[in-house]
């Protein structure tokens, strides 16, 4: 069932905009949402319009900080949850610049607007008529032109020569999905319908398994990270794929990118903890670039099958990894770690598990409930090939954290 029917959507983008502005202002001022709801009902709005106004106001407030035009745009709550971060959309649609593009599963238009701003001639396709009405409004207020088409994205007839961009739903019943068969629509069906002989980009869960049977084998797989957060993967097919590239990692907002080409990977050897712990950026780990990075800085793995690296020499500063000096290597025994903490007397500690099946909360209690926080010592519970180790680390002096732009 649609979150917003077409009739209500048309009212919302016309006469309902004033109500959205008023409700947004009331919620910003701290007014209770229940009182706002009662006032809307008292004004004569029916249930559908009341829900639409509250939903649009709530979505607008959540969109601030990420969407520059949030005060003019209209979303439903669900559509905003499904929309890509604007800076991710901007990065992704650069490959579509100046081309004819059919944006399937367009929703309220985040990717559509980004592609149009890059000069693409975009046709937005969605089967939800209400969302298409909001998309038309969002295009108008941001000054871009797009064509709209209501259709099932698996059945729509895309003209020859057009590129296809698809952002399937990655939530089912409120939970995120990673299997490509669970995307809406399923990725295998999307690729079969539109990816056989044309340039195509399909947005995937960043947690996609690299052995998923529906992952297109001939695609370039890009993993995109914003700040410290891994946000999405993209399968690029045919002419949109970079020649010879199997996988790519991208760091935003800076736009750093590096690639993995064909051929067997040279795996780093496994060895004991060194003087420094090296945590490779998640996007690079997912793109299987951590061995390449380890070779560049002379680091080795702490365990086979794990991406955590270690080195005896301080690696040069890089956005592709974080470095933490190792101050102690201890057995995986709470009493030993607690004794070390008692002697070191840190202000705050952070507990992080790396592959060990441990209850971090139970460990924290076993350590005597020390003050917790990210700015002090870190207790790294690390799986190794012979069991595990506890590495006590601290951020390297002068090291800069990646930040979200």
UniProtKB/TrEMBL annotation:
GO terms for molecular function: methyltransferase activity. GO terms for biological process: 7-methylguanosine cap hypermethylation. It comes from the Bacteria. Signal peptide: none annotated. This is THUMP-like domain-containing protein.
């Amino acid at each position: 069932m649609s979150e917003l029917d077409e009739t209500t959507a048309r009212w919302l983008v016309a006469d309902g905009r004033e109500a959205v502005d008023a409700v947004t202002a009331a919620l910003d001022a701290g007014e209770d949402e229940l009182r706002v709801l009662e006032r809307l009902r008292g004004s004569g709005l029916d249930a559908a319009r009341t829900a639409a106004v509250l939903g649009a106001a709530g979505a607008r407030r959540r969109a601030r900080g990420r969407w520059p035009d949030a005060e003019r745009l209209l979303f439903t709550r669900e559509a905003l949850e499904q929309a890509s971060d604007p800076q991710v959309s901007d990065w992704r649609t650069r490959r579509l610049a100046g081309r004819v593009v059919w944006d399937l599963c367009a929703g309220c238009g985040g990717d559509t607007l980004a592609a149009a701003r890059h000069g693409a001639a975009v046709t937005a396709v969605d089967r939800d008529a209400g969302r298409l009405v909001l998309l038309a409004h969002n295009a108008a207020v941001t000054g871009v032109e797009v064509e709209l088409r209501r259709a099932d994205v698996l059945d729509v007839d895309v003209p020859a020569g057009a590129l296809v961009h698809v952002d399937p739903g990655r939530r089912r019943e409120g939970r995120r999905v990673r299997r490509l068969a669970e995307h809406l629509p399923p990725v295998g069906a999307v690729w079969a319908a539109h990816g056989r002989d044309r340039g195509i980009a399909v947005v995937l869960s960043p947690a996609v398994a690299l052995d998923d049977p529906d992952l297109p084998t001939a695609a370039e797989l890009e993993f995109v990270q914003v700040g410290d957060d891994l946000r999405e993967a993209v399968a690029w097919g045919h002419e949109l794929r970079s020649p010879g590239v199997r996988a790519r990692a991208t760091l935003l907002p800076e736009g750093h990118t590096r690639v993995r080409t064909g051929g067997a990977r040279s795996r780093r050897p496994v060895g004991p903890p060194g003087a420094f712990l090296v945590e490779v950026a998640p996007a690079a780990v997912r793109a299987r670039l951590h061995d390449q990075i380890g070779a560049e800085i002379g680091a080795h793995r702490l365990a086979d099958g794990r991406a955590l690296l270690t080195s005896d020499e301080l690696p040069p500063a890089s956005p592709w990894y974080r470095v933490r000096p190792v101050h102690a290597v201890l057995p995986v025994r709470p009493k030993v770690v607690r004794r070390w903490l008692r002697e070191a007397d840190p202000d705050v500690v952070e507990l992080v598990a790396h592959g060990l099946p441990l209850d971090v909360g139970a460990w924290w209690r076993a350590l005597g409930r020390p003050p917790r926080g990210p700015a002090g010592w870190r207790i790294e519970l690390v799986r190794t090939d012979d069991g595990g180790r506890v590495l006590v680390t601290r951020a390297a002096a002068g090291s800069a954290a990646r930040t979200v732009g």
